[in-house]
Amino acid sequence: MSQYFNGKTAIVTGAGSGISFSFARLLLENGANVIFADLQLRDEAQSLVDSYSSGQPRAVYKKTDVRQWDQLSELFDLAVHDFGGVDIVCPGAGVYEPEFSNFWIPPGQEQSIDDPKAGRYASIDINLSHPIRLTQLAISHFMSGKPAAGPTNRKSIILISSTAGQKTPLAAPIYCATKHAINGLVRCLAPLQDRVGIRVAAVAPGVVKTPLWTEHAEKSRAFEEGKDEWVTPELVAEVMIALVCKEEIAQNPRDSATDPSSIMVPITGGSVLEVTADYVRNVTAFNDPGPAGRAGSTLHLRPHLYAIG
């Protein structure tokens, strides 16, 4: 993998923590420069950026509010200035039904930052509008590059969906709507790989052991010990790396090195790979059986029904 990534450059939003941080770290370890785009960096992310602040590969942090499209555009300007261009883009920043923008806590209530007169939800801006806009910018950048994207100069856009994109829990309607939409976006852009050498694909993990879950007591209670099983951000990041540079991945990545009979899952543009604990499968657009394995469940969360007046 290092040979593939050496000298390439990636933009990763949300890289200050969680899945995006793990993906950014793997990119750096395999030789790619990475622009960390986030509102802030957790300590481990700051240490990583500091350790790659010079030399090759290199990490650069740019404070970014992904709801602001001009700030998304500036990421490409920075990449061109510092590294000559971009090869991999990951719109990884996301939130899970935060109280500041939640279906069950409507605009105008004290916890919400959504303005009843503004006509928008912050959670949709973060989870859906930002990935759509960053994907648009990435395609434009890739097509106008010198050389432009093509069969011998392949580029990648890797999005983060969720098993929530296959579910319909009452507790998380906005989050699930955005993840259903991400799956649709990725599948619509599948032909770009064959036509112009741009692979657009996504991971769809179960509940991942990140601060988004572990540092919020109510969300942590949705995880049932003995029934559910955490997905590690490191495993999700490994699958994301495969989405960039591989044509297939083992259904059980952990056992693939020792099990020569491992079932291989094909990877191409439009792939949405579900990632549960030690299990990977391709989510199909029609007649899909639904999430497999033990990976935590948004179905355990209770909606804030009291907040609807």
TrEMBL record:
Pfam families the UniProt entry points to: adh_short
List the GO terms this entry assigns under cellular component, sorted alphabetically.
Answer: cytoplasm
Query: Which classification does the entry list for the species?
Result: Eukaryota, Fungi, Dikarya, Ascomycota, Pezizomycotina
Q: Which SUPFAM superfamilies match?
A: NAD(P)-binding Rossmann-fold domains
Key words, A-Z: NADP, Oxidoreductase
Q: Does the keyword Nucleus apply?
A: no
Give the species: Aaosphaeria arxii CBS 175.79
Which InterPro entries does the record cross-reference, listed alphabetically?
NAD(P)-bd_dom_sf (IPR036291), Sc_DH/Rdtase_CS (IPR020904), SDR_fam (IPR002347)
Family according to the record: Belongs to the short-chain dehydrogenases/reductases (SDR) family.
UniProt xrefs under Gene3D superfamilies: NAD(P)-binding Rossmann-like Domain
Q: What is this protein called?
A: NAD-dependent 15-hydroxyprostaglandin dehydrogenase
